[in-house]
Design a protein that fits this description.
The chain is mainly β. It contains four helices and 20 strands. The strands form four sheets. Strands 8-9-10-13-12-11 form a six-stranded antiparallel beta barrel. It has a six-stranded antiparallel β-barrel with strand order 15-16-17-20-19-18. Strands 1-5-6-3 form a four-stranded mixed sheet. Strand 8 and strand 9 form a beta hairpin. Keywords: Disulfide bond, Glycoprotein, Hydrolase, Protease, Secreted, Serine protease, Signal, Zymogen. This is Peptidase S1 domain-containing protein. One of its GO terms (molecular function) is serine-type endopeptidase activity.
């Protein structure tokens, strides 16, 4: 009995609501339909069936009883209504109504009214993926290579895409959002035959895993120059959005022209050829290579430092090491501050990862405004 009086006194002075008065949340009846919605009405306890006359509509109890309330981890508002008045109009009871629900304390002689309650909860939305996150740690310390074949950890690069024409792997690309894939412009020769051109996302084995996504549009950079391989960058708009999972994620984009800095370790992945000029040597599984950023390719190519990145062989001295035919369009992958970034896309090289010759990538940062302009365009079905 002493504990009963103590609890009554605590509620009386802490809630400032008593003698048939109810304290509700300050913004009663407000629940912005743009960002939230009301749950269904709940009425878990009827005071007429209790020995002490209390009425409890507690969200912690309701969560256990009804999945509709379980989604309401953050209660924005609470609304209540009285289902039935107390039989005793002179009853002395106290009702506390807040974002935890309703707690009305009465007695067998002074019963509470019968309340029902509902909660304003944030709308259920799919969590937005964070770019550059991988759920499986890739190899980063071994002498890895595409040419000569070193298999990547399955799905450790979940943004990697196999672009396939008539069921044959043709180029690589990287996922940058639900609707768009970044690749090289020279990979996009199929505007007149999109029905046979697909993007396989979430794949490790390009024959048996992942999902083929239909393509709606191929967008080449407007100043792409095929003979000189300048502005060699393009964007694929998909016909339907990608569903992200642990196997399928977008990559972040480098938007700082100074990155990646000289001597940075970078990576390239792909399903391309594993031997120079062996056109039937493309890999069924995703392979990767480790490269190093160097300062200049102009002694080999018509290189443009502002819009291109030059990388050097870092593999075994007695073996070719790097990208090959079929790896074009794949990302130049750069790890920074716990996330993976696409610093470029494979554009061209001499041979396949030959130690004597560097590989050139189109620099993502130089085209970031164009990329944003394309991916933010309204979609036309």
């Amino acid at each position: 009995m002493a504990s009963y009086l103590l609890l009554f006194a605590f509620l009386l002075f802490s809630s400032k609501s008593f003698a048939q008065q109810e304290l509700s949340s300050p913004n009663d009846d407000e629940c912005d339909p743009k960002t939230a919605s009301w749950t269904s009405w709940f009425n878990t306890q009827n005071p007429r069936t209790t020995t002490n006359g209390n009425d409890i509509e507690d969200i912690s109890v309701i969560r256990k009883l009804d999945p509709d309330a379980a989604r309401c981890d953050t209660v924005l508002n609470v609304e209540y209504s009285v289902v039935g008045k107390s039989h005793n109009e002179t009853s002395l009871y106290q009702t506390l109504i807040n974002n935890n629900g309703v707690f009305c304390m009465g007695s067998a002689a002074s019963r509470c009214p019968d309340y029902r309650v509902r909660f304003c909860c944030p709308s259920q939305q799919e969590p937005q993926p964070q770019c550059g996150e991988t759920f499986r740690q890739p190899h980063t310390n071994s002498p890895l290579r595409i040419v000569n074949g070193f298999e990547a950890v399955p799905h450790s690069f979940p943004w990697a895409v196999s672009l396939q024409y008539k069921n044959v792997h043709d180029c690589g690309g990287v996922i940058i959002d639900q609707w768009h894939i970044l690749t090289a412009a020279h990979c996009l020769d199929y505007s007149e035959d999109l029905g046979n051109y697909f993007a396989r996302v979430g794949a490790h084995n390009r024959f048996s895993s992942g999902q083929l996504m239909p393509i709606a549009e191929l967008v080449l950079h407007p100043t792409y120059n095929e003979p000189r391989s300048t502005d060699d960058i393009g964007i694929i708009r998909l016909a339907s959005p990608i569903t992200f999972s642990q196997d399928v994620q977008p990559i972040c984009l480098v938007d700082n022209a100074a990155e990646p800095p000289l001597d940075s370790t970078v990576y390239v992945v792909g399903w391309g050829n594993t031997a120079h000029q062996m056109w039937n040597s493309s890999s069924p599984v995703l392979l990767q290579a480790r490269l190093r950023v160097i300062s200049d390719c102009s002694m080999y190519f018509a290189y443009e430092a502002k819009s291109q990145v030059c990388t050097a062989h870092t593999g075994p001295a007695d073996r070719d090491h790097g990208s090959c035919q079929g790896d074009s369009g794949g990302g130049l992958l750069y790890f920074k501050n716990g996330r993976w970034y696409a610093a470029g896309v494979v554009s061209y090289a001499i041979g396949c990862g030959q130690q004597a010759f560097p590989t050139v990538f189109t620099k993502t940062a130089s085209y970031i405004e164009w990329i944003r302009e394309i991916i933010n365009r309204p979609r036309v079905n």
